[in-house]
Every structure is written in structure tokens, then in C-alpha cells.
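In response to the reviewer comment on reproducibility (Comment 2.3), we provide here a single inverse folding case reported in full, input and output, so that an independent group could reproduce the run without further information from us. The C-alpha cells appear first.
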């Protein structure tokens, strides 16, 4: 199916009316144009676009071709709206065209030392009998049984469930450090 859109070109007259749209004063219009160009370039650069210059030019060209067709209240907001659309289009095009030279093959992850049951047993033995019993009981159930167990443990120790969790977290942290040191 042929492309039915007629690609309009920016003419010298279009560009002159665009500058007049930016500002009726010629010197000020040039400054406004440069400021707008810089803002749009920054917009695309911050989004890590590969072709920020080209996208900036495309945005300005689209604005130039549209300003005669509709009344625009906020010029900068309108330009950013066009830039957002140009950005989205560029993302779709980049997805279609993958540059094989830029594809990086991930290296295999370094092998981690396997978990040592001996180290865990050694570190559990170093805990106080009360802490060892608590940590083993705390992680002995799953799902609803686990919730009920935690409630019973907190009642037995006469502490809130939050305080119980904090206590278990501290024991678990020390246990983790001990196992890590043992494996090193």
C-alpha cells in the first residue's frame, strides 16, 4: 500500500513565518530560535537518544509546518508535545532496526561459593541456646501455620510480633555474617 501522506517541505517563507511566530523582532526571534533548539536538543539528549540533532530538526520542521494551521497558546508546551511524539516514533524505529555491532553478549555470572551446611551448623552452634531455638522454630513452618507459630512465639516470649521480627532479624544477620566468614 503506497504512503498516502504527502511529505511537506519547509520553505524559506515557512521558516520566516516561524521566526515571526517566535518573536516579531528579528534579533529576538533568532535568540528564541536558538533557545528553543537548545531546549529540544537537551530534551532528546536527556532521554539518551542516539540522534538528538536529527530529532531536534525533525521537531522544529513539524512545528514550522503546523503553526499556520492552528492557533497555539503556549508555544513552548506545543513544541515539547511535538518533541514527545517525535521521541516515541524514534523509539519505535530503533526497536525495528537493531544494530548488531552494538549488541553486547552478557558474560556468564561468576560462580558463587556453594552454601555450606557445615558452616551453618557451626554458626548455629555458636549461638546461645535461646537464640538457636528461636531461629529454628521461627522458620520451621510455612503459610498460615507460620503466621500462627509466630503469634504463639510472640505470646510465649511476651513481646509484640514486631519486636519478635526485629529480634529474629538481628539473629539472622549475625548468623549470615558468621556463615559468610566461615565460607571465606
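Designed residues, in position order:
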Amino acid at each position: 500500500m503506497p504512503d498516502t501522506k504527502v511529505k511537506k517541505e519547509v520553505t524559506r517563507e515557512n521558516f520566516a513565518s516561524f521566526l515571526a511566530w517566535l518573536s516579531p523582532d528579528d534579533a529576538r526571534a533568532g535568540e528564541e530560535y536558538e533557545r528553543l533548539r537548545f531546549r529540544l536538543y537537551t530534551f532528546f539528549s536527556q532521554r539518551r537518544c542516539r540522534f538528538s540533532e536529527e530529532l531536534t530538526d525533525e521537531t522544529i520542521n513539524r512545528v514550522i509546518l503546523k503553526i499556520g494551521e492552528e492557533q497555539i497558546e503556549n508555544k513552548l508546551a506545543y513544541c515539547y508535545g511535538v518533541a514527545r511524539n517525535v521521541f516515541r516514533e524514534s523509539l519505535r524505529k530503533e526497536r525495528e532496526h537493531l544494530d548488531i555491532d552494538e549488541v553486547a553478549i552478557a558474560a556468564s555470572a561468576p560462580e558463587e561459593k556453594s552454601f555450606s551446611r557445615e558452616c551453618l551448623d557451626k554458626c548455629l552452634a555458636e549461638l546461645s541456646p535461646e537464640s538457636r531455638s528461636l531461629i529454628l522454630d521461627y522458620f520451621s513452618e510455612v503459610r498460615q501455620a507460620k503466621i500462627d507459630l509466630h503469634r504463639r512465639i510472640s505470646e510465649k516470649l511476651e513481646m509484640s510480633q514486631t519486636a519478635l521480627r526485629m529480634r529474629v532479624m538481628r539473629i539472622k544477620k549475625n548468623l549470615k555474617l558468621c556463615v559468610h566468614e566461615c565460607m571465606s
